[in-house]
Structures are given as C-alpha cells and as structure tokens.
Amino acid sequence: MTLVSLFPLIVFAMGAVGMDGVAEQIRTFTYTDPVSGSSVECDRCPPGTYLRARCTSTAKSVCVPCPSGSFTELWNSIAKCLRCGVCGHYEVVRTACSADSDLQCECNQGYYYKKSSGMCHRHRQCPSGQEVLTKGGADEDTTCHSCPIGTYSDTASAHQNCTQHKRCDAPELQLVLKGSTWHDSVCKKREELESRDGGDYLKEILPAFFVHQKMCIRRLRQIVHKLRSEDGKKQRSSGLNLSALHVQINTWVASATANQIRQLPAILTKTGANSAGERLLNKLKKIDSNLSQISLDALGTKVDVIVMSE
Question: What span, in angstroms and rounded, lies between the C-alpha atoms of 27 and 103?
C-alpha cells in the first residue's frame, strides 16, 4: 500500500537513480524563472512539508508543513502532500500516519499477509485427524501434518495439537473400538457387559465423525431433516448454518437410543452420503465384533473358573 501511494512522490521528488538502482534524493532542482528568464536552482522541501512557492533569483523556496491526514516521506518539490492511506480488509493500523510517513498496516490477529494476492488471509485450520506443525505468523500460514500413531484430533483448529488415545488397559476396562487419527479409543467397563449395545458405544464417536466427514451444508440439512427427536417431530434444518447443524446433530445423538443410532448409517445412505454411511457402518461392525469377542472371552473365563473349582 505504501509503495503504491508514494509513486507520484517518487516521480516528482527523486532527482536521480544510482547505478545500483537505489533512488538518490537530490535536495535541489532547477527551473527557469519566468520573470528574469534565467535558470534558478531551488531547494526542495524536506519530508513532512511541501512546496508552496518556488524560489526566485531573490527569494528561497517556501515550504510549509503537511496538513493533518497527509504526508511526504522524501525531499520533494510537489505542490501538496500525499493523502494518508487506509488499511485494507482484515488489516489494522500498526503505525499511524504522520507528517513525514504514511501509516503502516498489519494483518489482524489470526491472519497473515500473502504476497501473491497482496491481501491478508485467515490462518488455515488443521482439519480433524491433523495437528499444527507450525503456527501461522504475520507473513506465513499455518502448516499441518497427520496425527502420529496413538494420537488423535477431533476438531479443526489453527492451534491445537493431537491428543494421546485413551488407555483401556486398566483391569476394569475393555477396548471396544481402537482410536484413529480423528477419534479417541472407546473403552467399556466390565460391569456393562450385558447392559449396553454397540450403538451406545458408536454414539461416543459421532460428534467427531460428522466433523471429520466435512459434509456440505446441503447434505447436513438433509440429514438433520430426517433425524427424529424423542417426541417424533422432525428436526428443523432450513436456514441453519454449519455450526448450528452440528449442534442439532449432537443434540439428537445425545438423546438417541442405541437402536436409533444403529439406523444412522442407513439414514446417511438415504441422503446420498453413501461413503459416510459405509464408514459409519464399518465402525459399528467393528464395535459389535469386539463386544462379541469380549463376551466370549468372559464366558471362557467363567467356564475355566467353574472347572477349576470342581
């Protein structure tokens, strides 16, 4: 911004350019006195001022200070000061405009300056399943990489790193679903062996699932429209933004029965989210398979105990 606004000043105030391409500020200029017809060498005006009247053969140049809201940064011979610039979109003032310098801008917090576009852009958010490798700065965007093995991230963030998976190795716990890069491990208490369904455990990863799928807003509205609340009324979806739709889904999940959760993969398929429905169904199958294996192991343990007691 500053370089663009200074272009007229550079044309009028710079007298020469050195061999190295760097402008040299010449502090005098010559012109022909219209009264005497002779060539007169005049002083240029210093930064923070402008030329109100040229010199004559009998009087020096008249320089006056720049009015508020204007500036000159170089020795010059221009008839009025340059107007102070303004900050662009997503920019704030870093240094206010003064008589001898234009204002300087910087990107808002959470934004960075991109040279190719000449604008400030919001720092990238690392999607779920990834963490921040380097945080974004004033001149660089956030960089991301996948969560290392044994960790996960279930949110999109420009700051958050991946979290270690929950450990299910306590004596009272059993691993129901191994964690992935986008959701935590799901554990089960031994006393819940007969009381909980696989749908109850699938419920635990559903908020993270819908964040990770990154479905378009139209698809999410269709899904919310099909979900039934406890009183049998359809959830409102029209006009809701992405955040509000996720809230609606999470609210439904929190109150849904295990059987309703089991129907969710089919609902996704009916709305056209076939791949998402298939992924969710595969998660449910893994949970069911693990629960069956846990039950068999528990039954085998009971049999061993009975045999040994006899």
Answer: 24
**How many other β-carbons are positioned within 10 Å of the β-carbon of residue 96?**
10
Q: Which of 155, 148, 208 lies closest to 177, judged by CA? A: 208
pLDDT, tens digit, 9 for 90 and up, residues 188-232: 887 776 678 999 999 999 999 999 998 999 999 989 988 865 445
Tokens of 210: 């819908």
Phi, psi of 176 (to 5 degrees): -95, -40
CA-CA distance, 80 to 71, in Å (whole number)?
9
* pTM of the predicted model over 0.90: no
Q: What is the residue whose two structure tokens read 């974004």?
A: 136
Residues 73 and 68: their CA atoms lie apart, in Å, by 14
| Domain parsing of the chain, residue ranges | 2-83, 167-309
CATH homologous superfamily of 2-83 equals: Tumor Necrosis Factor Receptor, subunit A, domain 2 (2.10.50.10)
Task: Provide φ and ψ at 209, rounded to 5°.
Answer: -60, -45
